[in-house]
Amino acid sequence: MKIILAQPRGFCAGVVRAIDTVERALEKYGAPVYVRHEIVHNRHVVESLKAKGARFVEELSEVPSGAVTIFSAHGVSRKVENEAKSRALPTIDATCPLVTKVHNQGRRYVAQGRILVFIGHAGHPEVEGTLGQIDGELHLVESVEDVEKLPIAPDAPIAYVTQTTLSVDDTRGVIAALNRRFSDVEGPEIRDICYATQNRQTAVRELSRVCDVIIVVGAPNSSNSNRLREIGEEAGLPSYLVVGGADINAEWVKNAHVVGVTAGASAPEILVGEVVQALMRIEPSEVSDLSGLKESVSFRLPAELLS
Ligand code: SF4
User: Fold this and answer.
1) Nearest CA to ligand 1 atom 3
2) pLDDT tens for residues 90-137?
3) Is 269 annotated in the active site?
4) What CATH architecture is 98-192?
5) Which of these is catalytic: 23, 38, 81, 126?
């Protein structure tokens, strides 16, 4: 059996920045610091930050007065920002700059008098944050069927923005449906979408050409990891999402000659290593990296942590 690792895989620049933000805040202000929502969707990351003194909460009401509070990489609504302001909580915003870019783009479209259509998954924290950052007429769509049901006149000026964990390929069908139904549609340039989402999806497609089984390392609530697994499945391969090495089932690779492994944008490389070790325990295998794009994107830490 051979094991081939997708390239690129795992941590993106937004996730690295969010984790660094919590670590630097702990160094600068001392423990505990509070983080609203999982800083990124990965239990291993959350547990290791907890061990260093971070406390994770879902609501600001759980944060004691005066405690340093970090907003997660997914972003938050204005309501949450205002609640923090009204309680005078010292906040640090770890929202990924590419998510903030979507907020700004959406606001620009609304300022131009357009009705905004947001393509994303209902209930995801990034979607809730984005919907709560933009005033004006806003509609969330997940599918072509949702586009057909939009209560908007066909000649109304509309614009769309997309959840960052959806790639160009994911949104193509919905955007085509918008263009069919409406005569005046604006959307962002392709270069505005999240590079990491697109690159990881392209890499898993490449991987699926050379292997028999796909294993994606990522959390069950990680939207981009689930999408990587689906892409493996769309390529006709048995594809599994695992949290770490303990989830590997020998049956999955029983007849496989080549096992492809990748990781979602919030999954640390240490868990990829665990998965490879678990596969090697089933059968000693040659491990190699698929050639692919080398990423060099990095984001500056929030200003509060730079001084
Ligand atoms: Fe930012 Fe993209 Fe990473 Fe999301 S996947 S945190 S948008 S770089």
Assistant:
1) 14
2) 999 999 999 999 999 999 999 999 999 999 999 999 999 999 999 999
3) no
4) 3-Layer(aba) Sandwich (3.40)
5) 126
